[in-house]
Amino acid sequence: MRNGSAPVDSNLAPCRVRFGHDRAGTGAAGTLQVALPVLGGESDELILTGTEAPRTTGDFVLHEGDGLLAGFAVAPPGLELEAAAARLYDTLFAVTAGFHLFRIWNYVPRINAVEGALENYRLFCRGRSLAFERHFGSEFQKILPAASAVGAVTGPLALGFLAGEAIPHHFENPRQVPAFEYPMQYGPRPPSFARATAVSVGGTPQIFISGTASITGHATIATGDLARQVACTVENLSLIGAAAGAGRAVGRNQGWARRFKVYVRHAADLGAIATQLERTLLAAGDNVQFLQADLCRSDLLIEIEAILSRPE
Ligand code: 3EB
Question: What value, to the nearest 5°, has the Cα angle with vertex 43 and ends 86 and 34?
């Protein structure tokens, strides 16, 4: 569509995710489409404004610019979920060689369904964890970036990522067991992510807060109680925000630009959730998207992620 040798233009080759599609796929102009219904806010998420035309390598569409590399991939149809995770992650590590991973977004079809030997999320976690170990060795936990893994209505498995040349720092929530150390009761291989990743990009501090839910220690809190799950989630956001350097209240009114994605299991809960978040989390100027998604534990009703950046 655009000429790759055109002058740098802020609209050139943006890497975006577009929600609300029928199934996962690659859309026009290098966009990842996923099957998460949009409940409120914008239906797109901008991952990176590239400075070069996107290129395709293997399963991935890649966008590059200013020391950053972003992209996404959709698994070929027909692959079993664990094999699809292994394939996408093996390829991810190949295409990001020489960069550090900052953030990964996983879209797992029918995440809570049991269609094979294990629940789909657990199959996905095993494929992902084994791929990290194959590539980074037995101490792979040290390089795990912030992530989210949410359910899509239909597949195939898809992921998006942001990586860069700068060295990221990964953080844990003092009130939660690191996800990569969850006990076996949640599956044979634990999830592979850090609770937050902070990195300075071109002098701009950024904090990527992973999908955050109503979990303390490793246990789900307030099963069946929406208001308490929202409260616990907001407390966890505040704790990990503080650990990662955003100060109190997830950086509210402290000079951070804030983008939130709120994943809601039951669309009918949207009103109550939005009202509670207005009181306890949000401030004027925040960008907030509400999406319907199943979550990685059947008892979780809400999950929230954030990107904070402090333009100087
Ligand atoms: C949790 O804290 C909730 O598997 O990549 C949050 C963020 C969750 C990322 C992932 C899962 C993932 O365990 C679920």
Answer: 25
CA 290 to centroid of chain Cα atoms: 14
Catalytic residue among 42, 303, 305, 312, which? 303
Q: What is the pLDDT of residues 53-64, one digit of tens each?
A: 899 998 999 999
pLDDT in tens, 215-237: 999 999 999 999 999 999 999 99
Q: Are 99 and 63 in contact (CB under 8 A)?
A: no
pTM above 0.90, yes or no: yes
Residues, the chain: 312
Task: For a ligand 1 pocket test, name from 106, 193, 209, 307 the mutation site with the most ligand atoms within 8 angstroms of its C-beta.
Answer: 193
Describe the strand order of the beta sheet including 158-164 as a list of residue ranges. 55-57, 60-65, 68-74, 158-164, 100-109, 146-152
Q: In the annotation, is 115 catalytic?
A: no
